[in-house]
Batch of 3 targets.
Target 1
Amino acid sequence: MQEKGTISIHTENIFPIIKKFLYSDHEIFLRELVSNAVDATQKIKRLASLGQYNGELGDLKVEVAFDEAAKTITISDNGLGMTAEEIKKYINQIAFSGATEFMEKFKDAKDANEIIGRFGLGFYSAFMVADQVEIQTLSYQDGAEPARWVCDGSTEFEITEGSRTTRGTDIIMHINADGEEFLDKNRIQGILDKYCKFLPVPIKFGTQTDREQDGEDEEGKPKYTEVETDNIINNTNPIWTKAPSELIDQDYLDFYKELYPFSEDPLFWIHLNVDYPFNLTGVLYFPKVKNDFEIQKNKIKLYSRQVFITDEVKDIVPEFLMLLHGVIDSPDIPLNVSRSFLQADGNVKKINNYITKKVADKLAELFKSDRKSFEEKWSDIGLFVKYGMISEDKFYDKAKDFALLTNTKQEFFTLEEYKAKVTPNQTDKDGTTVYLYTNDPAKQDTFIQSANKKDYDVLLMNSPIDNHFVAQLEQKLEKTSVKRVDADVIDKLIKKEDAPAHVLTEEQSAKIKTIFDKAVAKANFKVEIESLNPDELPVTVTMDEFMRRMKDMAAMGGGMSFYGSMPDNYKVSINGNHKLISRIAQAESEEEQTQLAKQAFDLALLSQGMLTGPELTEFVNRSVSLI
């Protein structure tokens, strides 16, 4: 048997283009060929189960080997094998129509994925690293003869009688100069670990040395012998392929350690298992993230029939769940031939919605079944929930029943519970309920205590996403305003009808303003005389709630860069009803007035952590002189 011919693709330019476009991700050749070998192995197993193959299956596995001296990499299986006719059908006739038009359309394309994505070119990825590829194969069919196919990367091939004596296929790649990096044990092991870690057929790559007990010595201590065993690189039955009823908590924790060896144990997990209207399995873990708002993308791994595809899952997993870890496996997600990029279609959207619903349902279940435990986990999961509520309206609708607000006393409330708690006392004269919050209780303690004196409650909002969450609460909650506790003096944050009367005359107010304008002497600090409770501080420095919030969002990269470039502007509120202000107004000398005003202003700055450098030194020296 001998035959020569030309591969039926109607153009001689296909191979250079395949090489060019696949080369950017050239390590995938190993994944493609090992996956093909696994498919062939599973098919013979399937035929045997159906009674269509009655021979001995033998030890079903795929073997990867390399010979550095001969510069070859070989992938062997004992699967279906092929006849010479099947080689011609599956290898020579690349299965796409209109090849000439295809080549014309894509000859100048920059996006390889569209090319590789729609045509059956997985086998030809071998030519990224090889200048010659050889197939030795023997079909499972009765009376089949071994066949050999060889091609040097041009459109010419040769089929001759093969040398294989057992069922299956060897793919032998003669590695070119550019691919010699792959003639390395660690390089190959790394690729197999990345892409083939959970394939359903054992993958052998060389051998490993194990120690086995071999009796005992004279003192009764165990003796060990070193033995060579197959180095099987994969777990053929990962937990996402099993039913949840077969698993215990330790199984999920052990698998998490297998995926992320150096991570803390996760908080909990969600087992995905659906077969209609699409097929999807997987396990998603909630890791401990607290307030380290570094979205650790590339933590969820996407598989298709246990073959690793990508860790770029943004189309499948909602953005807010990119903080999760775990595995998703679906044969229904459309992939290109390099299996590296998702193509958005109806199934992807359905899967996205399904995952969002499953996560919301799991959180609701945890909240209802054990609220105390849920509250204990809130510092870790709150970031997920708030991010989801901001990102997805559908998630907000579900999460509003279990999302928690925490106050400075470490008490927890649902949105509905908190509204009921503060509405009676924190509703202003216009009928708007005002939520107060702090993002730094230690720094803003003066303002918190001022609020507490009026029996106002203060929420703790100190996660990096809370600026956005506050804005959403204002948008979603009817007649509700959310203000940081240091955004103004407390009487201005929640304006009531019973504001205290002004004890200063108009002339005294003008005089005090002049004194403080001179003492402050900063263009970005605006002095205002306020009618406040005499028990409040004499001077308070604040930044407008809106402006500060916009600046905080700009600092986070929240699309508010215009505000980020604006200078910081502050309001200096002078409590005209405080006895110190009256004392300043009545001071005999201008020097004493200025000194007392500067001292009061610096105290306000100090309480905000805004007094530093020479100004702090001056304040200390002035304080000593006043004692």
Target 2
Amino acid sequence: MAPSTPARSEHDVLVIGGGVAGLTLALHVADRRRVTLIRPASDDQGASRWAQGGIAAVLSPHDNFDAHVEDTLVAGDGLCDGRAVRFTVEQGPAAIEWLLSLGVPFTRDESPGASYPYHLTREGGHGARRIIHAEDATGLAVLDTLQQHVQAHPSITIRDDLVAIGLLADSRNHCRGARCLDDQGHLHEMVAGDTVLATGGASGIYRHTTSPHPASGEGMMMAAELGAELMNLEFQQFHPTCLYDPEGPPFLVSEAVRGEGGRLFSTDGRRFMPDLDSRAELAPRDIVARAIDAEMQRTGSPHVWLDLTHLGDTAIRHHFPTIHAHCLGRGLDITRQPIPVVPAAHYSCGGIATDLDGSTSVPDLHAIGEVAYTGLHGANRMASNSLLECLVYARSCAANLRHRHPSFTAPLTAAAGGNAQVDAQRIDSWRTAMRDIMSRHVAIVRRDSGLDTAARELAELDSNVSSALEDAAPAVKLASLRHAVRLSRLTVMAARMRRESRGLHFNPDCPGQAPAALPSRLRLSDLPRFD
């Protein structure tokens, strides 16, 4: 039986992804243009929800833009785009004021003589207290508030029954919307004047992550299929402190725990960070993650300890109620016991190359949030600059979209695929194999031999998945796997190209830094063909 003809519908602005970036953009555009937001239920479990620490912005009268810029540049280890850094930092206060106007319940500072009405904490890499937060569940508080406003807006249509599996293009190779699957597996062509990707990063290509349902680079590869350039894929940030519990779901232990005085110890009782860096536990994440990895190898332990018991019961419960309650529910009282922690894939510093307004090299295609490479993070993202980036670039992209009137050219009809069904267990086994390859060879420490092995094994895996796709009926899990495997191959390519150690990319076979700090640039066409 031939595949059914896709249902086709027309949309003004199509936003794919409903985290903080996607919701913020939708609200800013909807008073001028109609917005269709593809927001599957899994978006509630995405990276935005699990952002505990907060949002970095210059809010205190004791802080200034130059200091935030300089801290970000230092953390980025020579690869930040200075123009993007200053643009982001200077737009931060206005973005926070907008969230406050919507009613986001940020934690107030009730202390006598407070210089700012809301409590500001400090995290790794920051030289000042500039992290505004909602207790220790900032992402959830922001997400819930934005969702309420989006759901109430008459010009925003939410489609929670669709998942995008590819983008549509016209004869000029302009993006013309997305190809989606509904809950019953039926194809839908969502034709759009402007398309915005807000699909998240690529932490899901690794075995251990800080999110239960991490993105695996699907949005990056959908853009790459239309010719978009991808940059700095080799810089995958591993959060130093994910709760170590092999039997339970991932749970991130916020950077703010160390910001408020939490200390790291090896399992044999050694506090190791002061000997490695003058900033100790407040060093940038790449330094802390590598230090933890080294201590785990030295002791043969699968974790280290994060101890905050010295802060006292009252302070712990006040600053970290979510972390305290979660750990207590898993049998761990953090007011009396240290927390077992392990580094886990957390944030993709690379992604789709964009301008300051979210524009990509593909006409009528835009990207915001973790899926995008703006130049803000460079070789390492500084804590709590991620939600800041989501807000700032969603607002700048929206300002551009509000005044655009793209031609509504029909897309070229995409092939609908075959009818064969690929066994779900087979897809799961391929995904497990991909994650194992990436975690063994392309994680916190990479070596030339491991990268060579990863390139070979991923190419073979890609060949197998591609063969299965030739006759397969369209399916979300299979499409996601194909995107993830090819994104993994490009990540390995970028890591092999970088003949130095910088930021999040550490290769003992080339431990020094190159004289010039240059971003990596790749397109899908750069992938070697199968043997």
Target 3
Amino acid sequence: MHPLTRATRRALLLAGIAGPAFGQTTLPDLVVTGQAPGSLTAPSVAEQREALEQTPSAARFVDGRDFANRYAFNLRDVLADTPGVFVQGRYGQELRLSIRGSGIARGFHLRGIEVLQDGVPVNLADGSGDFYQIDPSAVRSAAVYPGGNALAFGSSTLGGAINFVTPTARTATEANSLRVEGGSYGTWRLSGQTSAVFGDWDALAAGSIAHSDGWRQHSRGQYEQFNANLGYRLNDSVETRFYAGAYIVRQQLPGSLSLADALNRPQIANPAAISGNQARNLWAERFANRTSIRLDAGQVDVDSWITHKQLYHPIFQAIDQDGLTWGIAPRWTQRYELAGLRGELVLGGRYFAGTNDALQYLNTRGSRGALTANGVQRAQNFEAFAENRLWVLPTVALVAGAKMLRNERDYENRLTGQRFGRAYEGLNPRIGVLWQPRPAVQVFANLTRSQDVPDFSDQLQTVGNRPFWVPLQAQRAWTVELGTRGRYEGYGWDLTLFRSNIRGQLLQFTVDPSIPASTFNAGNTVNQGVEFAGHLDLTRGALAAGDRIALRGSWTFNDFRFRADRQYGDNRIAGLPPHVLRTVLTYAAPEERGFVSPVLDWVPQGAWADYANTLRANQYFKLGLEAGLRVAPNLSLFLDLRNLTNKRYVSDLGTLQNARAAGANTAVFYPGEGRSLYVGARMSF
């Protein structure tokens, strides 16, 4: 045993007082023993991938190098090849993100998935959120943990968690870079990064400004995003890293359309979006810290964060919110041997809270009219979790874990003096087994319990132009998954079958296209499906020595249904298409000098728009072409042609109860973008 040094004692004190002001969490199950040349707070991409691939679950990893020399404007471009992740654009960087049916009927923003940036939740404390804080040009890697597989982050929702990791000076692909892009519909983006390592310190700053006039009417948007981090290594066993970010969004909203308009006049805006000058304007600042201490008995990581978010959102009313979110999350990880068996233990907790001043006004052409709502939303989350992995054989590991939670939601109506609140408690266990017959081949089975707590958008429903509190239940599910993944010579695969038996699934239906949907707890439902991705090197040396031709594809099958529901029987749950397929054929020149990739996106059946299963979106093929060329050691050019045949299709939709019902407004469809061209250049130095 080594006595603690003075620097170690200082770091322990720092970890304790960082508290509600700072925080960050890295990928789970990563423990470094002995002296490491890298960073404790920011593991290398190889270490991140290794940690993920040791989990007995359908976890997936995305390396930022895969899209470094491609056009990646939103998270659809980052996650498009990831099986099981449904991500479709609406306009600008607004999109639908769903994993295994999370937020299946949510026609706006985010629910049922915890989105993390450097391990820090982007979601507000009530679980709601959006994606504007994530800058695709500043993503070094991403890790997808479906469902309860995100336990080591403290997440236990049906959709799980996605962690987007920004680069540090020690993990960036190059110290400095500059990127310029432009294309159709007045689109341009300028982004850059600079970094340095100086002794025990390292620092990186990255920023981007993106603008688009929009393919549709009234869809102009501009995004200004800045991320920075500063790391300091006190000694070989102690390191701290501070993060800062600032994000400004100004996005006009074109609204949703009827199916006929979406397919025949897709570039028009909903008249209400124009008359109300509907928009989403956001200003946010983020500060976080991660302090890591390597002890003789494992590693302690203390994460803390604070985020300020201001929102002005003229839509059905002018929503004016100002909120603060903060949290702290300590975690201890230890590798051990027991009776000759090796194991890994993770113990952690998280306190995650926030308050949000929520005002609403009549929308007068985008300006504030008469006050209609004035309230304060408060959320607190108390969480404790544990996970243990024990290798009972050299190639077989058993995994067991659980999370205890208490989520408190409170709303005070300042206009009436009324207060409403509810607390949700739960215990969510997890068991799994991993068989690894060879280093790059795995077979796994997993059983997890998830619990989704309603957010304030669910609980505060609009009645008579005023918020009305609805005491919804939590959504609970048991999910079983069986899968395999691996790499062997010139091919690789990732295949998972899953089934979730759900009680009280949180579903929504649209009252009016401009008004947030009403939420209800369904009875018994089933979400089941298949997630598959594969790649195959077809040939090498086809045109020149050292080149290759490779094929990769993904297939997501969704079979989400009611079970003997009194109103909907065994109908499919509306919101997502049953099949989503993507195929990419790539020719890569020798020594990575360039590539050409035809891309096919295929949705053979459109999603149902209503629970009565009377109206659905269209099926479609969509063709694209990506290409890149390295013209100098530090300069690359790239091209992205999208929707070459100018196919008219629905990219996303809201949900209805019954589209054939008298008086039903079916303007819930978002048309997909038409033919477009984007070019860019990336220089490193």
